[in-house]
Amino acid sequence: MEFKWLKRSEIDEKKWDDCIKHSANGHVFAQSWYLDIVCDDWQGVVADDYEAVLPLPLKRIGFQTVYCPHWTPYLGIINQKPINKKAAWLMLQTVPYFNINLVMGTHNKLPGMKALRCEARKFAVLDLISEISRLEKRFKPELKPIIELYKKKKINVVRAMDASEYLNFVNRPGVYANGDELPALLKMISFALRYKSAGLYAAYDERNQMVAGAFLLKSDKKLSLIHCGDCSSNLEAVKAIIFHILDHNAGSNLTLEFPFYSDEVGRFFTANEHVCLVYKKGLPKWISLFH
User: Which residue in 28, 92, 39 sits closest to 259, CA to CA?
Assistant: First the structure.
């Protein structure tokens, strides 16, 4: 393979996005529109005629660094054809920057000793191929009363919101939500809804008052919970939303990921997880050794 480092202006968006869409390990976080929203500057390494791509978001914190921006749990190498460890390592060596702190994709492999020394990020993931009755058997017992409320229509879940309505809710006093980077979130939701690659869900109580909201992104066969807000600090109604999604998608070939809410939500539904290695080089590597 021949590897080329390209600046943002040199990247062929169609070929880049087509590579991601047609790759078994492709994901929405590496698509050009998503990167344009979540970071001010990004570049990339491409193999041959976009047979594989490696996104490189950049920021300056006293020194130029390749990193994973907010709203980007992992990136890594995305390849249409199988790529061995040696080729993957050569692709990483094409990155022209000395300082790198990059969470790789789930299926990315690093050479033996490098992998042993790497940090790892883990997040819950649920395969929806089974019927809902089989999925429920693996849920934690704490979910049972929430599911009962949903089944008795005491929590109603609908998929009919717009971006501004969702953000108005998560900004309310008493709503537990991650308030960081909301302008980027608004752009993300608006774009994704326009191109029908997202879902905004709302949960209502018996008095028809909104008690939770959730934003999910769809990419090929993956659903990812990107953001949520709930009037309960335990995210009870968000869990009802997740059950609603499972109830309507169980038996499909979809996978539901919880890259930002593994402990708060995901691990109540599944014990399965994805492991992403963190590739560090330069100052980020040395800083991590002393912390």
Answer: 28
